[in-house]
Sequence to fold (682 residues):
Amino acid sequence: MIPDKAPKEDVFLGSEDLKKEAHVPSFDKYKELYIHSVENPGEFWGDVAKDFFWRNKHTGQFLDYNFDVTKGEIFIKCMEGATTNICYNLLDRNVHEKKLADKIAFLWEGNEPGDELTVTYRELLQRVCQFANVLKSQGVKKGDRVSIYMPMVVELVVAMLACARIGAVHSVVFAGFSAESLCERIIDSQCSLLITADGFYRGDKLINLKLLSDEALQKCKDKGFPVKKCIMLKHLSKEPEEIVGSRSPPAKRSCPDLEIPWNPEVDLCWHTLIKGASDDCEPVWCDSEDPLFILYTSGSTGKPKGVLHTVSGYMLYTAITFKLVFDYQPDDIYWCTADIGWITGHSYITYGPMALGATSVLFEGLPTYPDVSRMWEIVDKYHVTKFYTAPTAIRLLMKFGNEPVQKYKRKSLKILGTVGEPINPEAWQWYYNVVGEKRCPVVDTFWQTETGGHVLTPLPAATPMKPGSATFPFFGVVPAILNESGEELEGPSEGYLVFKQPWPGMMRTVYGNHQRFETTYFKKFPGYYVTGDGCRRDKDGYYWITGRIDDMLNVSGHLLSTAEVESALVEHKAVAEAAVVSRPHPVKGESLYCFVTLNDGVSYNQTLEAELKKQVREKIGAIATPDYIQNAPGLPKTRSGKIMRRVLRKVACNEKDLGDISTLADSSVVEQLFQNRCCTAV
Ligand code: WT7
Fold:
């Protein structure tokens, strides 16, 4: 499946310098290790596991699984019977055994330039232990779920690791999500406690998180699920003595008029609780397959799925992918620009890098604030060596030309990475030529919330790159391309991307709904994990992701389901029916184009349009804000009443070639739709 020899034409080769000390220095070495990992997973992963502390050794097979729904329940187990604690491996071991106590874990850079602080591994261990004791004193026990709704601050990492230390299951909800989304996620995961902050700035915009949290908790209560406690961190309203860590210059982010509602029965102050807490906290030893966290991702029914990851497999997989894909070296300064509220931040800010004892930049702000050079200013300021971002950010910055990049030197950069969506070759070229000055390999990492870590990716010193291709599988990962009838295609081909066997870091279930896990990922093609992505394999065996082939769309690297947005629209009293499709967007990758059929007697106008946009933003969050809404008195439907989204996609893009529309019940609808196209969508 992987070519014997790497191609030499139409490819970009990694830097020679990198090869000297790289963990995987050549394509031959990659191939050799890959074959070993697939033929002998127990041995391969067993070696990876040697780098970690195990309280008890595993008993059964290293990896055990069933991927075939016709043979019984789907399951994946890794190192069953072994006990460990991920927080112990990330902190105590680095501090006490690996002599990294005084190494900086995070270089925190705030929204405002100049607002910064650092935290070492020793300090983090202390703070995590203290906060773990706080959680215990609030009655949180092993297995309990805790929601975390926080900005990009060090305390977010502290909260996650404190949960992990006592075996509680964190569910981080991205701070850009609405109160409604937070409420839905709290109830679905039955969380007993919420951790939040007063507020934060994103660029110029103030987000009052505490108000949103209160609104979410009120909604939970109204739905019969009262959450007992809410711990609030003061971020904007912090007193000078509440600042932990070395920080210079003094605070610039005070916000005296921030409204902070307070309900003494529920609300607790982070700083008050921490004051008396001991920094000694014995980790709770967990079984390998105990849950570590839940993270929600969009689902095609419109209801988000609680993707569940477990302790040991996730630990091994995030650590080894981080080490090899970014070719981690001890003196690296690594920066992943994602928010911890997404899987990228979980795996490649919190867990993977900390398992290796890495130093990371933790950035609160935006790539365009206060100006479009901010990223490169930060790269120079901290001498960032490995830089990981999203195609949408690259396309956004590319619009401003080379000058904002070239104002800074970027000499420290060695490897560049991307994730989240297919990267178009122009953006890849710009990233490679301008940002990396042709020195730095670009690792285009394909993966999903479900996969836990990279599954298709180049290794920077081993894999010749092709702009836009995620290249080859990571160790232990066996991809295949299937046609509509479920047959495996060989050689150059295009079809459904599936995986044939598990790797340690893949999800274990949908929280509270194992059946949904089986139906979503394993039912269509028994024996395979179905990614939901389309994929092409070229003559050299390279994999090219062609995008989602289900009802999901990818806006700025974040998945949304059409059903989720449709149901938010239909909840408006004026709307009878809604259909949402994606339309290509130069920066966001895809954007939302919505068709709404209004109730009788309601007329369409700008006020209504604004209300509908607001409705979606409030129900889901700002990322889901529709770009276009079109009044559609009729929708194209089949005789059985199914909306033909394929036709709507053509209308959204103004493409008149509709293909076969013989199943359409009333073809006059289509003409009308073209006439009524949104005038702003050229
Ligand atoms: C979907 C998963 C994994 C972290 C961020 C998104 C798309 C992701 C790539 C890539 C082409 C990509 C896929 C995938 N995707 N990375 N390098 N090339 N497509 O996590 O929200 O779970 O989304 O993002 O469509 O299925 P997610």
About this structure: The radius of gyration is 25 Å.
